């Protein structure tokens, strides 16, 4: 369903039971949002580690190396996902004649595939009637560079397993949905340079004794279909093996956790922080399992758009926009943005 010319279309469908429970979760979110003018920033463990002088991606644990290897099981040795994007042209981003950006400009709006349920990164705020979050700010920056107006965007709600096909087939121009750059994904789509660094952890109920995936052997752990988190859970080296349960959205996973149908949810700490903010009767536990560098996904047939978006990100970081967005949605103090690295 599409809610308007610049509205949100969503393809995922919940069961009646899950939808009803999700309303309860949304009530918690609304209660928190009603007491302030903007959603309260949530500082992720990865951000805290960086702010203390180290990078979350550098934290070492007994299972870190094994999990990171699992995440990149299909990646080739020659691929470096954080240095795989295309270098932008020097100077400010330019909409050149005949480019994909020129086609977007002629259409009159940018089409972005985003999450509608990832609190603080991409979610529909019922109090403002707008799609908001850190990922969303990246999209607004791209629209600003094309149109001179950050609001010339049509946001389309998509699930994790729709990200690659939707951007590849042209349903959307760009995907901004906490999407980790993986070499396996680079075979299908292109990415911008890294704009955010997260890490995989685990969410459990507050009264749980679990300390991470290693203590959940034989139990059900939820992740979204199409996410690399699902791969980490499926092949995590613990006996008995973890039982993977997939759902369309991580808010669905939260509902399953609340209902006792799964023992834990595992994904990026940035996403888990948002789930915890919506349900304070949960907690984030365990070591950092696998670095998750986020990039904006773009179809392979538009390398000019990749270079343009990288120019936008470089400008957004240089003028303080990235730091302001981070402080609003993730926490303070904002760290230095991830250093841009390119393949060319």
Walk me through what this model shows.
With 344 residues, this protein is α/β, with parallel strands linked by helices. It has a domain at 83-196 and 293-329: D-Maltodextrin-Binding Protein, domain 2, CATH 3.40.190.10. The protein has helices at 16-34, 45-51, 64-71, 100-107, 134-147, 163-168, 183-186, 228-234, 250-258, 269-278, 303-318, 321-329, and strands at 110-114, 117-118, 122-125, 130-132, 153-157, 174-176, 190-191, 196-205, 220-224, 243-247, 264-268, 282-285, 291-294, 297-298. Strands 8, 9, 10, 11, 12 and 13 form a six-stranded mixed beta sheet that branches. The protein has a three-stranded parallel beta sheet with strand order 5-1-6. Strand 2 and strand 3 form a beta hairpin. Helix 1 crosses helix 9 and helix 5 crosses helix 11 (303-318). The longest helix is centred in the N-terminal third of the chain and has 19 residues, at 16-34. The radius of gyration is 19 Å and the shape is globular.
Briefly note the CATH topology name of the domain at 83-196 and 293-329: D-Maltodextrin-Binding Protein, domain 2
SSE pattern, N- to C-terminal: HHHHEEEEHEHEHEEEHEHEHEEEHH
CATH homologous superfamily title of the domain at 83-196 and 293-329: Periplasmic binding protein-like II
- What proportion of the residues is helical, as a percent range? 25-40%
Q: What is the total tally of β strands?
A: 14
Count of discrete alpha- or pi-helical segments spanning 4 or more residues: 12
Q: Mean pLDDT, nearest integer? A: 84
Unreliable segments (pLDDT under 50, ≥5 consecutive)? 1-5, 8-76
Structural class assignment: alpha/beta
- For the record, the CATH class of the domain at 83-196 and 293-329 is Alpha Beta
Strand coverage percent:
15-25%
Rg for CA atoms = 19 Å
Which architecture of the domain at 83-196 and 293-329 would the CATH scheme give at its second level?
3-Layer(aba) Sandwich
Largest sheet: 6 strands, mixed
Distance between the termini: 41 Å
């Amino acid at each position: 369903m599409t809610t308007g010319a610049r509205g949100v279309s969503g393809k995922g469908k919940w069961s009646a039971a899950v939808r009803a429970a999700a309303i309860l979760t949304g009530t918690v979110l609304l209660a928190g949002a009603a007491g302030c003018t903007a959603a309260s920033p949530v500082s992720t463990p990865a951000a805290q580690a960086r702010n203390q002088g180290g990078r979350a991606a550098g934290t070492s644990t007994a299972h870190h190396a094994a999990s990171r290897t699992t995440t990149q099981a299909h990646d080739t040795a020659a691929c470096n996902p954080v240095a795989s994007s295309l270098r932008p042209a020097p100077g400010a981003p330019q909409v050149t004649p005949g480019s994909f950006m020129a086609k977007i400009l002629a259409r009159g709006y940018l089409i972005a595939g985003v999450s509608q349920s990832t609190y603080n990164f991409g979610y529909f705020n019922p109090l403002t009637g707008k799609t908001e979050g850190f990922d969303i700010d990246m999209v607004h920056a791209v629209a600003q560079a094309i149109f001179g107006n950050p609001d010339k965007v049509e946001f389309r709600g998509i699930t994790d397993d729709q990200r690659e096909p939707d951007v590849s087939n042209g349903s959307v121009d760009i995907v901004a949905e906490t999407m980790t750059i993986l070499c396996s994904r680079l075979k299908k789509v292109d990415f911008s340079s890294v704009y955010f660094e997260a890490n995989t952890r685990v969410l459990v109920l507050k009264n749980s004794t679990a300390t991470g995936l290693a203590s959940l052997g034989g139990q059900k752990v939820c992740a979204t279909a199409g996410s690399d988190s699902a791969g980490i859970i499926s092949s995590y080296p613990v006996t008995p093996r973890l039982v993977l349960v997939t759902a369309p959205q991580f808010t669905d996973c939260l509902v399953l956790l609340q209902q006792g149908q799964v023992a834990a949810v595992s994904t990026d700490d940035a996403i888990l922080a948002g789930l915890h903010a919506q349900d304070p009767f949960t907690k984030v536990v365990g070591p950092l399992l696998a670095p998750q560098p986020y990039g904006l996904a773009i179809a392979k047939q538009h390398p000019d758009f990749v270079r343009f978006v990288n120019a936008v990100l470089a400008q957004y970081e240089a003028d303080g926009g990235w730091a302001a967005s981070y402080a609003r949605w993730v926490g303070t103090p904002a760290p230095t943005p991830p250093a841009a690295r390119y393949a060319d």
